[in-house]
Amino acid sequence: MKNLFLIISLFSLGILTAQNPVEKFPYFEECKDLPVNELEDCFYKNLYSSLYENYKHPQQLPLNAGEKVTLRFEVNREGRFIPIRFDAVYAELTTAVKNSFEKLPVIAAPTYNGNPTYMQFVLRVPVPMTPDGSFQVFNGKEQENSVVKKSSNALDSIAFAKANEEYPQIISNQYNGQQLKSNGLIALSNQRYHRYEAAMNRIGNNAHTAVKPYTFSYVDQYFDLEAERSSLMKDESTWLGKKWWNEHFFELAGDDYWFVIDPGVDLQIGKDSGDDINTFNNTRLVNVSGGIGKQITFGASIQESQGRFAGYFNREIESRAPDGGNPGIVPGRGIAEDGGDTIYDYPVATGYINYKPSKYFDLQLGHGQHFIGDGYRSLVLSDNSQPFPYAKVNAKFWKLDYTVLYTSLRDVRSEVTADDSFRTKFMVHHYLSWNATEKLNIGLFESVLWQDDNQRGFDFNYLNPIIFYQAIELQTGSRGGNALIGATAKYKFTDRITGYAQLVLDEFSGASVVNGDGSYQNKSAYQLGLKWQNAFKVKDLMLQAEYNRVRPYTYSHNTVVLNYANSNQALAHPWGANFYETTFIGRYTKDRWYGNAQFTLGERGLDINDGIDNAFYGGDIYRSEDDRIADNGNELGQGNRVTFMYAQLEAGYLINPASQLRIYGQIIYRDFDPHFEIGNVQEQNTTWLNIGLRTDIMNWSFDR
């Protein structure tokens, strides 16, 4: 038997191939004095010997079983052996080889240009192992070694000589977690992102954490996604077991492409005891991701849903009803059709294509959601609104991260709809993040909205990615645009404790902000927050406290189309304006188990609208500030003051880390206590119990 045949060639974003002269194989201590070109043979020889030394053949299987175990693993930048997946006909064989694998020593890491990197392997070991045995090593090119028979038909012309050589050489069975090293987007999920930020916020890291969603490759610089996946793998040998517990439903990959598909669900059943409503949600979805070469990645999700929710959430849906007769808009999802019996039928579609021309730039076109900030809420831009079309440019270099977002938004209210067509408006957003020190991050942002009036369309004055929009807005007409500016900050007190803040100034008027006379032009908001990772030295326990305060009339405009909203949903905080809010959050993860707790307390100022007092008190951002209650003397919570309390507990189990399918139970308590009970603004006390099975690719925001 040959000692070794065929050489590994799983190459993606730093994964090595032995043929490249600038790359060096990992090596055991016994191989350190050998020439570079001999390290590969020595590596396999010592690896086999080390595995054999600790291998114990299962007693229930005969010694002449003649079976083989396929190993997928990685040697990382620290020289550690990281298991990815082991496969065999018998689970006992997989376990035996895995037990031996876990005892492998730390060795010298592979290098590229002299710098430590990682290398992935796919090999097959015959069992039972023997002292003189060896591996079969795969590089996915075995078919190239087979003889491709050419046509022997004498009538074929010389032009057909290569006609039958292409198809047999197409490789499609090399998927090995390429998504985790790609520039694909990680779906916005609070449960997922808090774990990444614990690593990204370590002192000395040059990570920028405000602009979301992240890409896999960016997170992988600070958080080992492959190691996490490996640690969560279950020992499954059947196709159904692997697909249910470990893998994407469909996986396809070759030398320069990969492609995965996952069907998914968001199934919920529950009970709102306050309004005596049986609640449910029934979402069926398909999630697709892929990559072509190293520069192009793409993804899409299609969802079809029907749902009936707790009474307060149903009223929230219907309060945002669009023109055209549909009953409402599901926050964060979109326009809902009438499914009868207080059932809302709402589809959602998202997608993107990302092009990375160099290590510094990402260019992206898509239809999706965005979030800017380090907190639970964002006063700059959040995922509270339904997905919208966008073009995004991102540049990361030195200590800077610069993002430009071009978007198309809609105003769907009856009073602004013309010729049965929703009103179009556009927004451009700049965000510059600077790691001023290894502990301090400072961010500056500006955004401007304008409506599609006078056949203006997309105003190319705003196309320049580096410009001060306030000046452009003045040149194009101040009533034709709505500009916001502001700043963010983050400070790492320790590796585990991080403070963060946001400041937003809407239609900036310096004198109104500082003179303290309660001017309606003091349209400002701020956020203060603190995160404690691995709190009380408990691994993967995160505690968070956050305070948000938004003055009356912030995010609104005298031209009502230009409010800071999309499809009757706020682009920032779901409460709009004229409120303060304090939130405490705890998140804990243990293997595949997780638990979340949230408590929110706040006050909101709503309009009275009793037929006598119809003034605008500054909370409803969809009204015109021309209807304001007063020029001066405006204070937070003015109008119909509401005391709000919200508590939520959730516990669940991650069924499949690849598709993010999880099962969970949830209980929500909400108390809504207005000073005046008028119309739909009534005192409400809700206890809502939910259990469900969910593919976690979008956040639900029930705390409204």
UniProtKB/TrEMBL annotation:
**Which organism encodes this protein?**
Nonlabens ulvanivorans
Q: What is this protein called?
A: Protein involved in gliding motility RemB
What top-level branch of life does the organism fall under? Answer: Bacteria
Give start-end of the signal peptide. 1-18
Q: Which UniProt keywords apply?
A: Signal
Q: Does the keyword Signal apply?
A: yes
